[in-house]
Amino acid sequence: MSSPLFDVWEAASASPYQPTVGKNSQFLIGSVLLFAAFILAGVFGLNRSFVNLSLLGVPASLAFGFGAVYMICAVGVYV
């Protein structure tokens, strides 16, 4: 007698998880995203307007968020 959960477990063992960004490139991608966030936030800080909020502010905050997570994972602190 087999359970459905065991069948799913066996099927998943045949195809292991492959991340989109490999472990060896997390530091580079994190560094690039944090640098881009720093530049975008600096330009946004110099010229603030409602239009620049969507063009510079949102991408800067997203780049900082993802860059911070990639850097945390790259140096060995897992969230």
From TrEMBL:
It is found in: Membrane. It is a multi-pass membrane protein. GO terms for biological process: protein N-linked glycosylation. Its main location: membrane. Belongs to the OST5 family. Subunit of the oligosaccharyl transferase (OST) complex that catalyzes the initial transfer of a defined glycan (Glc(3)Man(9)GlcNAc(2) in eukaryotes) from the lipid carrier dolichol-pyrophosphate to an asparagine residue within an Asn-X-Ser/Thr consensus motif in nascent polypeptide chains, the first step in protein N-glycosylation. N-glycosylation occurs cotranslationally and the complex associates with the Sec61 complex at the channel-forming translocon complex that mediates protein translocation across the endoplasmic reticulum (ER). All subunits are required for a maximal enzyme activity. This is Dolichyl-diphosphooligosaccharide-protein glycosyltransferase subunit OST5.
